[in-house]
Write a structure and sequence with these properties.
Strand order of the largest sheet: 1-2-3-4-5
Largest sheet: 5 strands, mixed
CATH topology: Trna Endonuclease, Chain: A, domain 1
Structural class: alpha+beta
Distance between the termini: 41 Å
Number of helices: 3
Shape: globular
Radius of gyration: 15 Å
Strand content: 25-35%
Number of strands: 5
Length: about 100
């Protein structure tokens, strides 16, 4: 999280940590030209693998400013890749892990 925050601040963004608000993203990054809602995923592996919650997926589908920031080799030599939901869907297989089953009214 810190790596991404510092990276975006270096690009001229003001970054606020909003994880505790459960908005579907972790960081709010604002500059004069754009407002980005950054969902940060990290792994120690050199290849990305991550989970998206229903809330994150819904936010991604409704907000053009939503971005996935994937950090690989997080503890050794972090590298980040920033993607829109369209790029995520093109690059990755999104395979549901579970379904929530509720009784019909």
């Amino acid at each position: 999280m810190h790596f991404v925050q510092v990276s975006f601040e270096a690009q001229g963004y003001t970054v606020e940590d909003v994880q505790s608000l459960n908005l579907g993203y972790d960081l709010l990054a604002i500059n004069a030209l754009s407002t980005l809602k950054l969902e940060v995923k990290g792994t120690d592996a050199s290849t990305p693998r991550f989970f998206l919650t229903r809330n994150e997926r819904q936010c991604a589908g409704f907000d053009e400013g939503w971005r996935l920031v994937m950090v690989t080799s997080a503890r050794t030599a972090p590298k980040q890749q920033v993607m829109t939901i369209q790029e995520v869907e093109r690059i990755f297989d999104l395979d549901p892990l579970a379904w929530e089953c509720t009784q019909r009214a």
